[in-house]
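Homework-ish question, so no full write-ups if that breaks the rules, but can someone show me the predicted structure for this set?
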Amino acid sequence: GAGVSQSPSNKVTEKGKDVELRCDPISGHTALYWYRQSLGQGLEFLIYFQGNSAPDKSGLPSDRFSAERTGGSVSTLTIQRTQQEDSAVYLCASSLTEGFPTDTQYFGPGTRLTVL
Amino acid sequence: AQKVTQAQTEISVVEKEDVTLDCVYETRDTTYYLFWYKQPPSGELVFLIRRNSFDEQNEISGRYSWNFQKSTSSFNFTITASQVVDSAVYFCALGGSARQLTFGSGTQLTVLP
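A: Not a homework solution, just the prediction itself:
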């Protein structure tokens, strides 16, 4: 079946603009995760969803970052007033459940964000 | 807090050599999972294996094998008879009571022809 898909694959924006990144999880997966991968920081957790609710937003770096998930499926990560330090690859993952211990997370191809 | 350490930043081997990637972890959870992911140049993280904290049985799958030792908090990964297509960044990750994965910094493996 289809894997996790993300769009756009690449996004170049100017400092101060807002951007929206989209993630479409594997069909039937109830848990969805956002991570960020940058050269200096490695792979960092941002937020995860169980259904449409976000029990853990602890990784969001600032209030410029927000995310939502609708219909228990597609998720959108929004970055407002982008800064150059937001440049990174944003990765989305999904898992069948958010079971404990962690269920296997399957990753999408990522969105490469460049803030000029 | 959880932590994963991959001390090897870069490894370069010649094709057909065996190579072992090291991973050491820290956690206060008594139940947890360990993972290895591969990130080829295309950029997508590919799941390779998951091991739970109660299963220390080591496994061999084709050219891949894994050595999990709770006593030393290590979860090492070995590729036998490496091939050029194995060139990638390999990440070790830990999942536990916090649903998100904690990743190591990755090991860049280059297999030379």
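Now go work out the reasoning yourself. Hint: Chain A has no helices and eleven strands.
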